[in-house]
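Predict the 3D structure for this chain.
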Amino acid sequence: MAVSLRKSRGFESFPLEASGVAAERRQGRGATTNRSGRFEPIAYEPTDDGWESLAELEALRTEVQEVPARKIITRNDSPDISFDRSINPYRGCEHGCIYCYARPTHAFLGLSPGLDFETKLFAKTNAAEALERELADPKYRVRTMAIGTNTDPYQPIERRYRIMRRILEVLSETNHPVGIVTKSALVLRDLDILKPMAERGLVKVALSVTTLDRKLARAMEPRASTPGKRLETIARLNDAGVPTSVMVAPVLPGLTDMEMEKILERAAAAGAKQAGYVLLRLPLEIGDLFTEWLKANCPDRANRVLSLMRSTRGGKLYDAKWNERMVGDGPFAWMIGRRFEIAAARLGLNKRSTNLRTDLFTRPVLRGQQLALF
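Done. Predicted structure below.
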């Protein structure tokens, strides 16, 4: 057989494939290739040996490796991010969003930011216990915890592992504020926890809506909830008293930017009170992955989209400059920003911010610890 097996981080898989992977094998996936990450010294190319061996390869399956987490809270001091701490229950994401800025993190594991990122996942099964230990530290000072800022905590495997739910239980028991971002209607499963937390001013949820075009969403975000389901989720969260917002993120110039006003209108009608947007970001391996996807799925618009992207990034596909990486620069980026501001103001969005409470926090007491006197 022309393609041999390889091992990486405990997974046994076929080689990282630099050329396109057969559509039959990657059905329901976002990336079109499994190209090597930036740290790999070798790039692999699948070659048929004349016996049609490539046709014998099975469809890509989702594999999950359970990993213990020594610490679960990640800190950051980025000047253009509104939170300083976050939790990521999973590494890799089955949603398969082709533009996901978390894809390059798989390269640190010797895996591909392409198809490996959405098929070879890591579940931090002891996340809730690790969180409880960190919150019990006398040095811990409470501020809003962000969840969903890297990979989606409500991706499909959460149905089985329920890691996010156990994390929410710890946060609820300790009265710790949390902000959640997701593309999944699965968040509604946890309304029994979210609703009481909202009553105490401890939670807010943002749904990311990239497009209202169901066909485009299926190709771009293959295993995320449909756009309609996300808007329905906003409505149900709002009805339950959970503060909700919509993230038009990312905005893809020449592909989805023309939908911005409509997305905001639909979200506001569903009950969203706040909104935000992020211009498409293509750091590291994502530039090649997105370009491949674009040419395969939108060949008539590919050159236009890439040209507009470069016009917002100083002639490059991406610029990581602080305070510009989220919104871009140049006339087109400026226009997107003004359109967002005008539409949000017209719809009454962002009139006031949702400030979560920190004064209710109760430090957990671990087994063997002394109880507080007061």
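Residues 32 and 296 are 8 Å apart (CA to CA).
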